[in-house]
Amino acid sequence: MDAKFVAKEERDWRPAPAPETSSLATLKNAAKTCTACHLFRHATQTVFGEGAKGAKLMLLGEQPGDQEDLAGKPFVGPAGKILDRALEEAGIDRGEVYVTNTVKHFKWEPRGKRRIHKKPNSREIAACRPWLEAELRVVRPGLLVCLGATAAQAVFGPTFRVTRERGKVLKSEIAPKIVATVHPSSLLRQPDEESREREYKLFVADLRVAVKAL
Ligand code: SF4
After folding, report:
1. Which mutation among 27, 29, 37, 102 tests ligand 1's pocket best, with the greatest number of atoms within 8 A of CB?
2. Are 147 and 183 in contact (CB under 8 A)?
3. Three-class SS of residue 54?
4. Which pLDDT value is given to residue 62?
5. Ligand 1: which residue has its CA nearest to atom 4?
6. Which of 103, 113, 195, 214 is most buried, with most CB under 10 Å away?
7. What are phi and psi of 44, to 5 degrees?
8. Rounded distance from Cα 27 to ligand 1 centre (Å)
């Protein structure tokens, strides 16, 4: 692809046109046709949040991955499976949680035949923010769990460090209580079984802090 074209395409964004509504279905439907940033061009579909209006707990990830992009559902890939296991261990029923992402389209780059995850940048996060704000307005969770740096920095700003602040009950204007922790995909990237297990336990401990704070 032409580098200049990509740069222009990426520079061209506006805030997503989230409608004023109290209906999650209306929001989800409107997001299907969102073209506020260039990410819709190379993804299969918008992956909107899932869960009940009025869920007490909202989980916020970074963006859909390869499998989520194909399925149109958040956290159904390998990271989602770890999340499901950890939620269960922390005593959280995924069916009662609202799960979403900071950015609703899969950003990727080709590597051979594979689509490799690419971190969304500040323009893409800003473009997508109205969808997240609308979800928060409608769901009104008592507690938001930020999964990973992209989600946490979208809430607290770019200087926020998950490694320093994880597992604490924090406050922000966008939700009464917030707990930041790692993204479950980081557990998949651990170099060996021992560190994977250690990080998994820390992840579950952070989720338990969220349950306790609810
Ligand atoms: S990533 Fe968000 S803002 Fe960009 S096109 Fe998709 S839904 Fe719209």
Report:
1. 37
2. yes
3. coil
4. 98
5. 37
6. 103
7. -75, -40
8. 13
What is residue 46's predicted lDDT score, i.e. its pLDDT?
A: 98
pLDDT in tens, 151-186: 999 999 999 999 999 999 999 999 999 999 999 999
Does ligand 1 have an atom closer than 6 angstroms to the CB of 129?
A: no
Residue numbers of the chain with a pLDDT score lower than 70:
1-7
Domains identified in the chain, total number: 1
CA–centroid distance, residue 131 to ligand 1 (Å):
9
> 145 is written with which tokens?
């769990």
Beta carbon of 34 within 6 Å of any ligand 1 atom = yes
What pLDDT is stored for residue 10 in this prediction? 80
Output the six-digit token pair for 106.
């899969």
Q: Give the predicted TM-score (pTM) of the model.
A: 0.95
Q: Is residue 27 part of a domain?
A: yes
Q: What is the pLDDT of residue 2?
A: 47
CATH code for the domain in which residue 134 is found:
3.40.470.10
For residues 170 and 156, the answer to whether their CB atoms sit within 8 Å is yes
Q: Which two tokens stand for residue 79?
A: 């990271």
Atom of ligand 1 nearest to the CA of 107: 1
Domain that holds residue 77: 20-213
Amino acid (1-letter code) at residue 213: A
User: What is the pLDDT at residue 9?
Assistant: 77
Closest listed residue to residue 104, CA positions, set 155, 60, 159:
60
Task: Indicate the Cα dihedral angle 146, 172, 16, 46, nearest 10°.
Answer: 20
Closest C-alpha residue for ligand 1 atom 2: 128
**4 within domain boundaries:** no
